[in-house]
């Protein structure tokens, strides 16, 4: 493992960031500025440049880089920006002048840069200045620890801290919202550094305080970390509340800070806070002796102070101390900046500065352990300083405009797996931008360990802080930093510098370092010499020689083993090359002494021998899979395979054949009689084969041997895809009848794989495909018999009579878990036969061994007889399990036939028809109702209706009289609809015989109802699914079960959506628009009336079931399936539900009916909840079994008036709808209509519903009836009006109201009659009648053009309703003559 640049993340839109920060005029200014900076480029790079270049060539770590010297200077825009990357790698902020861009890290699965998993995208951009000429001078991204339980201690959010030229410090959220703004000093902010909590490396090391340190021109401000964390948390909560409430004023809490003034340094460009430090006892005594003379006052410990190291000029580097526990003094009072000055006794822990008048420090970076500091200066030097001694002890020349950072690496894990945290290495990273070079140096006097050619326009980021707000408890298990040092390039890539610990080993002759280098060379060679599939950079022979040379020169055994593993995992090498490389390793190790080698090399020698044996086994198996075995004679029939090869009885064979014939008759895909194994499609290489096998090496006194089952085994927890590929490679060629069973058995036995694992792999491969033929059972039987004969007898026969044999139980479990029921059924039949033969064979062996020991003691004979008896009992227990699993698989075989049928139903949808895979274990673990649930899922996904599940009586009679020819019909691609339907009937009839309890009508209908409801909940727009669900629910006979299922449907699926619909309708006061319906309810405007209508049906079903509830039903399960354990079935849950409150259900029923009426009849300007009082509104949408206060008939008068008005408007809408349904095609003058047609109209039911509601609300029913009669006469529907008129009780009121309709009709006749007719009629009219007719009426007719004959009939009804003494009776009689004259003229 070598030092490398690992892709960390990527800018998804770096061009847009550049264009925002540097518009076109600014880019031109930037070019001019960059040209000015090019002065001094020809300055000498120093004497060690050639040496550095020579080290580049020797190290081999320098990749091909960028050497173009004519790069456009505009690429330096990123280096002119202020850039900060969060150590959690979740946020990055880029700023220039007064503009800032914030980018968040997001996972992008479709990112075009495949090596990057995450992508930075812009979340906010804009100008942040608040004062004139205010510019950004410093920026910092600070993640804050989460206090949530789920992510305790991890990063919660990241704060962006910005320093300005006005001295302001402003803090923003990730979205650019301002949290806090405060001016801590009236000078421009130069730098900002933050110190966060890090756990100490060892006990006794003091913890550093969290703080935010800000550098101004003549001051240093330290903000307390705890105060900052609490302030940011409070400000963020205030911003969230303000954005929710619309307020704009914030009250940020004050920050706790200290301010220091360094007076002894002319200018400071950069600084670092070293934290709290304390001088050692020796320095304390020396300082006390120098100051105190012969009688010094020596303290037990030195003063505790905060140490700050600065870079600038006058001096070049300064060390400043701030004593804790005093009032904040000026740093000049307590700091020792120049070596020739002693301030006071408080300066006992002071250090020397580095005075250099011409040199100006530009930046400084402190190592993670605080021992070293690296500075860059105006002379193009990088100087390494010992912080403890205060001296510069190393200098690099030729690094103008360089950027530096640090990486701290812990020692790698030891062989025992325990990490030794005591060894830590510090590496200095130097990014020479002008040279396009990134170097990694070992701290102190160490060598350069790596160098990379990179872009010249990047930025090196090395954040010293982690997550703010951690402590010694919350930091456990939290990754404080995602990276230590990263390089940001202008192409948008962010590369993390990764350094292994072994590069810290300074000994150039280190054996481990040399071997690791050779291992790296092997990996590099194998990776680089396969550019594209099928092409090589060098010939395979040369590659083999090169790799072999590297491998044989490795001295460390465990590293050589890693190299061999890497070679064996390289797919393109092939078994021949890998075999020769293993042979060379074996020869070399054998020549060194063989068994006299040290333990590591002996283990490595055994490892090579085992892998060489496996490679040879692969070659033999690959050759076997290419040779087809030619069989002589005719192929045996299915019956012959079962009886002769497997050894079943004739009756058993016929029973098994009948099961498969039933599957074929019901339409399951017939398997091919002879599978053709296309080896060309099965590409399996030796590397994949070896990756599935684990070699376990042991330390032995003698020469290691390959004999023994523990040396080679399959890898534990092998992925299913690899296990499937291995099984297909080993067995599929033979199972298809193309290979010799005896030859394959010999090869696998020679491979020394454990027989039990091989047999398990065989069974899994057999169960992997469901199209196995009966003829292929012969090969499976022979292979299984071969491998089980080598398994330990203790695994095949259990000693305890109450426990089944372990291996055969594992075999049955695999069959039970398989979803390929056809193959599992075949495997169970074969396994039962092999198990009986194996037990008989072991019994014979036991008997023969007993006869040879005839002269042994009687005690031994008794023990032998006891063992034989136990064997017989074990056989009995196993046989019970075998019979059970075979019975289960027979049932699942027929059940799977139903699941694979695709019905020709108009409601069938392909996107909904996901095949339902079932298995024995799945049905047993699913609980009692799992079988019914599986069938109900099929019914729902297939779109079957209740009538599709039962054969009609006529069809059933025909089936009993004669056998249908449909069973013998050969299925084609286009299956007739009736044929498919009859097959479904036959399947369900067969399943009812197998599962009589699970397929009881009530149980099946309840589950079908539930599954249809689940489908509707997934697609709320498909209201037909909800309707079909209720159709099934209506067929449930038991009221308790019907009540429970209806209540569960309401509680889990319907109530919430119904509540949203009611609130939405009450909010808008009319039928909601389509956009609102889809947004809130999830149903379109056109389907919303259907949904509410089905809710009405559901509530009615609950009300009926509540009244009809009888005894609780008892649900049974088939005897063969009562062993299952799992969740409670749906019907059991339904019958255990609490009894609902009938009056509360009825209350919801009233609401649903009114909502349905509004939606159906398009009634506007009505808020549906306003029709109920406060008590009624509070009782809605609570649990239906609760007993809240419900309204009674004595409600507020305003509510009653509103209900009456709503019902009258509803009836008016019903009449208008009925009138619109009459077509004028029957009669041009006045449309005739069928009375029966109007009576059967769906809209005509609403007046009766209104009367029921009015009765339950305690309203005046007769008033509503009179209004209905008047509206019908107003619409010209006189026949319907006469029927309703018979039900009115107040005759005088209805007579008066109808008389007004007569007047409106006569007025209309006068308005349309000719002048001649009017002159003939008016003189004959009584003056009182004429005046009455001239009065203006308050209402209007819906349809005024009614024949006069109908008006005459209406007038006669009016006369009948009014008594003779009524004031309007005489008027009505007078109108008779007028109407007769209208008819006459």
Automatic annotation (TrEMBL):
UniProt-annotated stretches for the region Disordered: 44-73
Single GO MF descriptor: GTPase activator activity
Domain of life: Eukaryota
Cellular component, GO annotation: cytoplasm
InterPro entries named among the record's database cross-references: Rab3GAP2 (IPR026059), RAB3GAP2_C (IPR029257), RAB3GAP_N (IPR032839), WD40_repeat_dom_sf (IPR036322)
Rab3-GAP regulatory subunit N-terminal domain span: 77-350
A Pfam short name: RAB3GAP2_N
Domain Rab3GAP regulatory subunit C-terminal, chain residue ranges per copy: 760-1362
Key word Cytoplasm present: yes
Keywords: Cytoplasm, GTPase activation
Bias (Acidic residues) ranges: 44-59
Protein family membership: Belongs to the Rab3-GAP regulatory subunit family.
PANTHER family: RAB3 GTPASE-ACTIVATING PROTEIN NON-CATALYTIC SUBUNIT, RAB3-GAP REGULATORY DOMAIN
Name of the protein in its database record: Rab3 GTPase-activating protein non-catalytic subunit
Species of origin: Potamilus streckersoni
């Amino acid at each position: 493992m070598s030092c490398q640049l690992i892709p960390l993340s990527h800018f998804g839109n770096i061009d847009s960031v550049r264009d925002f920060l540097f518009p076109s005029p600014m880019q031109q200014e930037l070019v001019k500025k960059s040209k000015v900076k090019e002065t001094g480029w020809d300055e000498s790079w120093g004497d060690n440049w050639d040496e550095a270049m020579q080290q580049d060539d020797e190290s081999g770590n320098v990749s091909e880089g960028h050497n173009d010297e004519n790069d456009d200077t505009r690429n330096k825009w990123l280096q002119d920006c202020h850039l900060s990357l969060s150590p959690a790698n979740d946020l990055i902020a880029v700023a220039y002048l007064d503009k800032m861009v914030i980018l968040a890290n997001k996972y992008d699965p479709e990112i075009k840069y495949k090596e990057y998993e995450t992508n930075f995208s812009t979340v906010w951009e804009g100008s942040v200045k608040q004062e004139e000429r205010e510019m950004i001078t410093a920026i910092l991204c600070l993640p804050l620890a989460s206090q949530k339980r789920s992510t305790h201690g991890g990063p919660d959010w990241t704060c962006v801290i910005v320093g300005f030229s006005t001295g302001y410090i402003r803090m923003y959220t990730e979205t650019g919202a301002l949290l806090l703004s405060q001016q801590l000093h009236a000078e421009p902010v130069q730098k900002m550094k933050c110190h966060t909590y890090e756990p100490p490396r060892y006990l006794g090391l003091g913890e550093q305080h969290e703080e935010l340190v800000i550098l101004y021109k003549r001051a240093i401000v330290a903000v307390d970390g705890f105060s900052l964390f609490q302030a940011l948390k409070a400000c963020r909560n205030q911003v969230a509340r303000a954005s929710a409430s619309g307020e704009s004023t914030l009250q940020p809490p004050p920050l706790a800070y200290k301010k220091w003034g360094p007076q002894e340094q002319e200018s400071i460009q950069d600084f670092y806070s070293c934290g709290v430090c304390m001088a050692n006892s020796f320095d304390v005594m020396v300082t006390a002796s120098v100051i105190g003379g012969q009688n010094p006052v020596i303290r037990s410990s030195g003063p505790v102070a905060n140490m700050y190291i600065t870079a600038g000029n006058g001096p070049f580097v300064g060390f400043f101390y701030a004593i804790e526990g005093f009032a904040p003094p000026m740093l000049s009072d307590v700091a020792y900046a120049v070596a020739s000055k002693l301030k006071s006794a408080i300066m006992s822990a002071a250090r020397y500065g580095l005075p250099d008048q011409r040199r100006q420090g530009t930046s400084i970076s402190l190592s993670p352990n605080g021992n070293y500091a690296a500075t860059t200066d105006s002379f193009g030097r990088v100087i390494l300083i010992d912080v403890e001694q205060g001296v510069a002890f190393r200098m690099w020349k030729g690094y103008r405009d360089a950027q530096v950072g640090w990486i701290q690496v812990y020692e790698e894990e030891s062989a025992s797996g325990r990490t030794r945290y005591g060894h830590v290495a510090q590496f200095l990273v130097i990014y020479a931008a002008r040279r396009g070079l990134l170097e990694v140096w070992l701290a102190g006097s160490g060598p350069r360990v790596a160098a990379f050619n990179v872009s010249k326009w990047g930025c090196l980021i090395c954040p010293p802080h982690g997550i703010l707000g951690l402590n010694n408890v919350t930091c456990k298990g939290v990754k404080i930093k995602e990276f230590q040092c990263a390089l940001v390039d202008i192409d948008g890539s962010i590369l993390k510098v990764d350094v292994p610990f072994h590069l810290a080993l300074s000994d150039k002759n280190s054996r481990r370092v040399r071997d690791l280098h050779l291992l790296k060379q092997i990996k590099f060679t194998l990776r680089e010499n396969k550019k594209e599939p099928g092409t090589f950079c060098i010939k395979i022979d040369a590659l083999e020689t090169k790799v072999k040379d590297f491998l044989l020169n490795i001295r460390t055994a465990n590293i050589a083993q890693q190299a061999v593993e890497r070679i064996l995992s390289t797919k393109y090498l092939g078994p021949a090359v890998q075999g020769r490389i293993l042979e060379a390793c074996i020869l070399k190790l054998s020549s060194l002494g063989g068994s006299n080698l040290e333990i590591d090399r002996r283990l490595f020698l055994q490892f090579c021998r085992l892998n060489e044996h496996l490679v040879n086994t692969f070659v033999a198996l690959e050759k076997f899979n290419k040779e087809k075995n030619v069989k002589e004679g005719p192929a045996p029939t299915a019956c012959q395979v079962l009886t002769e090869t497997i050894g079943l009885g004739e009756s058993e064979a016929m029973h098994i054949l009948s099961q498969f014939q039933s599957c074929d008759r019901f339409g399951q895909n017939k398997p091919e009689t002879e599978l053709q194994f296309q080896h060309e499609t099965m590409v399996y290489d030796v590397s994949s084969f070896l990756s599935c096998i684990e070699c376990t090496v042991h330390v032995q006194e003698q020469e290691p041997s390959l004999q023994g089952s523990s040396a080679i085994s399959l890898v534990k927890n092998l992925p299913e895809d690899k296990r499937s590929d291995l099984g297909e490679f080993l067995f599929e060629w033979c199972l298809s009848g193309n290979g010799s069973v005896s030859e394959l058995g010999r090869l696998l036995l020679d491979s020394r794989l454990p027989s039990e694992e091989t047999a398990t792999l065989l069974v899994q491969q057999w169960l992997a495909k469901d199209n196995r033929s009966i003829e292929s059972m012969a090969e499976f039987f022979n292979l299984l018999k071969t491998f089980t004969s080598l398994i330990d007898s203790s695994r095949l026969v259990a000693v305890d009579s109450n426990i089944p044999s372990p291996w055969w139980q594992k075999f049955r479990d695999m069959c039970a878990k398989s979803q390929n029921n056809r193959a599992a059924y075949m495997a169970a039949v074969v396994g039962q036969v092999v198990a009986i033969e194996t037990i008989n064979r072991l019994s014979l062996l036991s008997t023969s061994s007993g006869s040879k020991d005839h002269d042994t003691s009687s005690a031994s004979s008794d023990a032998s007889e006891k063992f034989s008896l136990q064997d017989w009992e074990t056989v009995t227990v196993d046989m019970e399990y075998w019979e059970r699993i075979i019975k289960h698989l027979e049932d699942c075989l027929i059940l799977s036939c139903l699941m694979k049928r695709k019905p020709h139903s108009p409601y069938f949808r392909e996107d909904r028809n996901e095949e339902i895979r079932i298995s024995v274990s799945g049905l047993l673990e699913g609980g009692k109702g799992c079988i019914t649930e599986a069938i109900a899922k099929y019914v729902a996904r297939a779109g079957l209706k209740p009538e599709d599940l039962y054969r009609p009586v006529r069809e059933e009679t025909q089936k009993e009289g004669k056998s249908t020819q449909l069973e013998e019909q050969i299925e084609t691609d286009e299956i007739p609809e009736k044929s498919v339907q009859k097959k479904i009937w036959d399947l369900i009839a067969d399943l009812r015989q197998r599962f009589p309890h699970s397929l009881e009508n009530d149980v099946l209908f309840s589950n079908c109802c539930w599954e249809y409801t689940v489908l509707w909940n997934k697609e709320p727009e498909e209201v037909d699914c909800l309707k079909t669900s209720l159709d099934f629910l209506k067929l449930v006979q038991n009221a308790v079960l019907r009540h429970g299922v209806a209540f569960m449907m309401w509680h889990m699926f319907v109530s919430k959506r119904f509540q949203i619909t009611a609130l939405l309708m009450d909010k808008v006061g009319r039928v909601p628009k389509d956009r609102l319906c889809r947004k809130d309810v999830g149903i379109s405007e056109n389907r919303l009336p259907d949904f509410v209508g089905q809710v009405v049906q559901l509530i009615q079903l609950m009300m009926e079931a509540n009244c009809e509830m009888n005894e609780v039903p008892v649900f049974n399960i088939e005897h063969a399936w009562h062993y299952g354990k799992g969740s409670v079935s749906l019907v059991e849950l339904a019958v255990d539900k609490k009894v609902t409150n009938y009056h509360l259900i009825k209350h919801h029923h009233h609401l649903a009916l009114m909502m349905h009426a509004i939606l159906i009849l398009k009634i506007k300007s009505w808020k549906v909840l306003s029709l109920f009082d406060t008590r009624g509104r509070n009782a809605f949408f609570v649990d239906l079994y609760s007993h809240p206060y419900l309204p009674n008939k004595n409600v507020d008068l305003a509510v009653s008036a509103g209900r009456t008005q709503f019902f009258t408007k509803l009836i008016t809408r019903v009449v208008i709808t009925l009138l619109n349904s009459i077509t004028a095609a029957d009669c041009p003058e006045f449309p005739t209509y069928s009375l029966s047609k109007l009576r059967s109209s769906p809209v005509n039911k609403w007046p009766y519903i209104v009367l029921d509601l009015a009765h339950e609300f305690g309203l005046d029913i007769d008033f509503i009836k009179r209004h209905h009669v008047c509206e019908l006469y107003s619409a010209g529907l006189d026949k319907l009006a006469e029927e309703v008129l018979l039900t009115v009780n107040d005759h005088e009121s209805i007579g008066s109201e109808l008389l007004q309709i007569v007047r409106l009709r006569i007025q209309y006749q006068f308005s349309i009659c000719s002048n001649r007719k009017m002159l003939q009629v008016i003189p004959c009219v009584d003056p009182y009648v004429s005046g009455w007719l001239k009065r203006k009426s308050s209402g209007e007719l819906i349809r005024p053009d009614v024949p006069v004959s109908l008006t005459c009939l209406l007038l006669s009804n009016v006369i009948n309703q009014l008594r003779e003494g009524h004031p309007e009776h005489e008027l009505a009689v007078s109108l008779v003559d007028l109407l007769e004259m209208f008819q006459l003229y």
